[in-house]
Predict the 3D structure of the following.
Amino acid sequence: MSAGHSGIDEVRKHLGRLLRKCRARAVVDPGDPRIQGRRRGISQETTAALLGCSTRWYATLESGRMKNPTPEFLESVVAVLRMNDQERQFLFLYATGELPLATGPADYALHPGWAQLVERQPHPACIYTRRWDLIAANAGYLDLLFGAEAGSVAELPDRNVLRWVLLNKACRAERLVDWRDSWAAPMLGELRAAIAANPDSQDLMTLLDSLLADPVVKELWDAEIGVFRTHPDGTMLSIDDPAHGRVDFTILAANVMHARELRFVALMSTGPGFRPGSVEGRGTAPAYL
């Protein structure tokens, strides 16, 4: 790398190219009084007019010199330039160094290959959203966490993994071994971390409110149980399963690359007591919404 050439220079270059590419292909309404001239391709001046800002302000973004652009401003750029999902992700990444938050169901679209991966896992596996809403699971995961009566994700009484673990009375009383310290504490820590990372997220606060309506969980939350704990890779947990006995397993998790708000989780059994999909009448096929 030559002297004076830096990663910042590369980021600025890519950000400018992305925005110029999107401006060049933009289709606009020639009847819009803010638009001067062309039907396809817009200038920095027109882009700024559509955004409701000065040309100089917009130009600082395109040059990579805008400091701390707000998510709201970047989302306006996405809308004006009609960026697709990947362009939106790169805009945020180049402009802020961070990927954008999910905005709706489109951000949770799974590539078909993920369905096959979950299906073929020899261990219980699932995929859920950043709100812990389960959207895919194989039979082994449903058997182990929810019991043999759970035929599919759609049939679950509650698809939210966090609410199920923290509020289900059978989980608290007998099914999840050492529920308070091994399960509730780190999961509440995960929720605290998620809220810290997304303090304006109404969906996370709604989830918290639903949990705090339970006096047991509220007592743990108010006592700041799990305030400095999360579920790191390699955490070992145990479940007392009526059909399989005591099942010990290790948790491994990863984010999906395209839909990064989704989390893939595998529960790697460390003992011989559990066989995924072994309940009579159940195979190993995945159970999806």
